[in-house]
UniProtKB/TrEMBL annotation:
<dbReference type="InterPro" id="IPR034434">
    <property type="entry name" value="RBM46_RRM1"/>
</dbReference>
<dbReference type="GO" id="GO:0007283">
    <property type="term" value="P:spermatogenesis"/>
</dbReference>
<keyword id="KW-0469">Meiosis</keyword>
<dbReference type="InterPro" id="IPR044462">
    <property type="entry name" value="RBM46_DSR"/>
</dbReference>
<dbReference type="InterPro" id="IPR000504">
    <property type="entry name" value="RRM_dom"/>
</dbReference>
<dbReference type="GO" id="GO:0005737">
    <property type="term" value="C:cytoplasm"/>
</dbReference>
<dbReference type="GO" id="GO:0003723">
    <property type="term" value="F:RNA binding"/>
</dbReference>
<dbReference type="GO" id="GO:0051321">
    <property type="term" value="P:meiotic cell cycle"/>
</dbReference>
<feature type="domain" description="RRM">
    <location>
        <begin position="141"/>
        <end position="223"/>
    </location>
</feature>
<keyword id="KW-0677">Repeat</keyword>
<keyword id="KW-0896">Oogenesis</keyword>
<dbReference type="Pfam" id="PF00076">
    <property type="entry name" value="RRM_1"/>
</dbReference>
<dbReference type="InterPro" id="IPR012677">
    <property type="entry name" value="Nucleotide-bd_a/b_plait_sf"/>
</dbReference>
<keyword id="KW-0694">RNA-binding</keyword>
<protein>
    <recommendedName>
        <fullName>Probable RNA-binding protein 46</fullName>
    </recommendedName>
</protein>
<dbReference type="Pfam" id="PF14709">
    <property type="entry name" value="DND1_DSRM"/>
</dbReference>
<feature type="domain" description="RRM">
    <location>
        <begin position="61"/>
        <end position="139"/>
    </location>
</feature>
Amino acid sequence: MHEENKAAANASGKTRSGTQNEAALLALMEKTGYSMIQENGQRKFGGPPPGWEGPPPPRGCEVFVGKIPRDMYEDELVPVFERAGKIYEFRLMMEFSGENRGYAFVMYTTKEEAQLAIKILNHYEIRPGKFIGVCVSLDNCRLFIGAIPKEKKKEEILNEMKKVTEGVVDVIVYPNAADKTKNRGFAFVQYESHRAAAMARRRLIPGTFQLWGHTIQVDWADPEKEVDEETMQRVKVLYVRNLMISTTEDTIKAEFNKFKPGVVERVKKLRDYAFVHFFHREDAVAAMSVMNGKCIDGASIEVTLAKPVNKENTWKHHFNGQISPSSESLLGFPNKEDGHQKSLGKPASLSVHLNGQHSPGLPKVERCTYPFFPGIKLTPISMYSLKSSHFSSAAMHLDYFCNKNNWAPPEYYLYSTTSQDGKVLLVYKVFIPSIAGSSQSYFMPDKLCTTVEGARELAARFTLLQI
C-alpha cells in the first residue's frame, strides 16, 4: 500500500515540482492516515477512511466540485473540504499530463455533511479570483434513447433493449401529445445499477448501432430530482401528464373536484400536462390515489405529487453518468443542443423533475409560503430545536452552530469605507466570545459589500469556513 501511495503521489509531479508535490501529498497521507491510489483517470484519497467499518455512506452523501484550478491537488483541496465534515473518499479526476481535469467528487460520511459542504463551499474563492462550484452528485442509472420509431409500443422497446443490453429494469415511454397511439420518438431505459447503464451506453454509443433499422441516439438521461421527505410532506400540488392537448383547465378542475367538491384551488395546464393546486395537502394525496390512471377526454392520465426544485441546484451536465446540477456552468461547457428531447420542454424560469424529465414547475413562492387560515393552531418553538436544513442564510447557520457547541452567540461589528467612485462599502468583523482565548477570535472577510445584509452573510460564511 505504501508503494501505491507513493506512486499516486508522484503521478502529478509532471506539473508541479515533482519532489515538492510528492512530499506534500505524502505528508497529507501521513497526517490523515488515508491511502491514495490512481486508476482509470482518477486519483482516490480514502474510500474507506482509516478505521471505517460497515458499508459505504448512502446515496446523497457525495458532492461534485467543479472549476478546480488545474494545478491544485489534494494537499490543498482536502483541508478545505474537511471543514464541512469527515471525508469518506475524495476522487480527483486526472489528465495523463499530471494536471487535474478541473473537477472532483467528494463523498462524506453523512448527508448532512454533504449539504453543509454545498452550503459553505459553493462559489468559494479557492484562490484569488478562482471560485469553485459545489453541488450534489448522484449516480445515474437511466439512459436516454432517441430516434425510436414512433409506432413502437413500450413492450416492444423493453424487449428489444433487454436483447441488446443487460440489467434493464424498465422502459419509460411517453405518448405523443397529438396522437396517443404513438410515442414521442424517444424513451428512457432504467438499469439495475450505474455500472449496467454505463456498460449499455458504451455498447450503444458509437452511433452505428441500429434498432429496427434506425440509427439511435444514446446519452445519459437527466436524473429524477431527489427532494427531501420533509419538503415533500408539505406539497399540495399534483402533476398530471398525458393529457389531450384539447383538454381545458376547466375540464381538469371539474374532474378533480368530482371526488370531493371544492378541494381544487386552481389548475395550470401547459400543452399535455398540468399542475393541479389544492387548498389542503390531504385532499391532494387522496385525489392522486383516486385519479391516477383515470381517463379524461379519452386519455389515461398519470398523477404524482409535484416535486419542488431548488433553483440554485438546477445545474445539469454529465460526467460518466454522475450528474451534477449545472456542471456545465462550473466547467465552462456550453449547453448541449442535440435537437432531441432528453427532458421535456420547460420555461427557462421554472422546472420540476418527474421520472428523470423536466417539466414546468411551481413559482418559488409556492415552495416557501402557505396559506394561513383562521383557526390554525400555532405552537411556539425554539429555532435551535430545528434541523440545519431549515436555515437558508449563513448568519443563521453560524448562530445555530454556536448554539450546538454550547457557545455564546456570535457578535457582529460593522465597519465602513468609501470606494473610489464614492460608494459606501461595508464589512463585518465577527467575534466568537467562547473562543476568545484561542489564536484567532475575530474573523473578517477580505471582501466589502454595498449592503448590510450582504456584508453580514459574507462575514458569517467566512467565519464558518474558519472555525
